[in-house]
Amino acid sequence: MSEYNFSGYSPDDVAEMRAKRILLNEKLHGAHPRRMNDLGMGMLEHAVEGYGSRYQVLQSPFLGLYKAVKGKTDEFLEAGKLYAVLLLLLTNTVEQIHKLDLKMKNDRELEVNFAGQRARQYTNRDPHTIKVKGICVLVEEEDDDD
After folding, report:
1. Other beta carbons within 10 Å of 50
2. Per residue in 36-82, pLDDT tens?
3. DSSP conformational letter for 141
């Protein structure tokens, strides 16, 4: 399936937003969207999710996986890395992965350091490289008033 330009966002921009969603659970508002109406924002969100794909990205897979392994950090990191690689490749976010380091910062946060290359679009231009570095919050702070 071909990729489209959305209100000034190139296919590489959309892929970068998708990578940040997969790896950091970043929502579209975190991407500092350009001025767009609701329809434009909806179309951009749909593109980031992976329109027409069997593998829609609504949130990071790390959240559910962390909850499922219940504190088994080594298992979580191994499975999380495999799951992220699978999603990054199957959603056509990147064609090659050069680096994917996952490390627990504490019992609620995952440090991510990623670099991957998109598929070549033009013979006279190098493929775009996506770099993502940041923290994925796995467990939201609980309200102490409860």
Report:
1. 22
2. 566 666 777 767 777 666 777 888 999 999 999 988 999 999 999 99
3. P
Are the CB atoms for 89 and 73 separated by under 8 Å? no
CA dihedral 21, 122, 116, 43 (to 10 degrees): 0
CA distances (Å), origin 123, targets 35, 104, 117, 120, 144: 32, 40, 15, 7, 57
The span from the CA of 48 to the CA of 66, in Å, is 23
Full-prediction pTM beyond 0.85?
Answer: no
Q: Binning pLDDT at 50, 70 and 90, where does residue 29 land?
A: low
Residue with tokens 């959309």: 14
Token duo for residue 103: 């490390």
Give me the mean pLDDT over the 26-40 stretch. 61
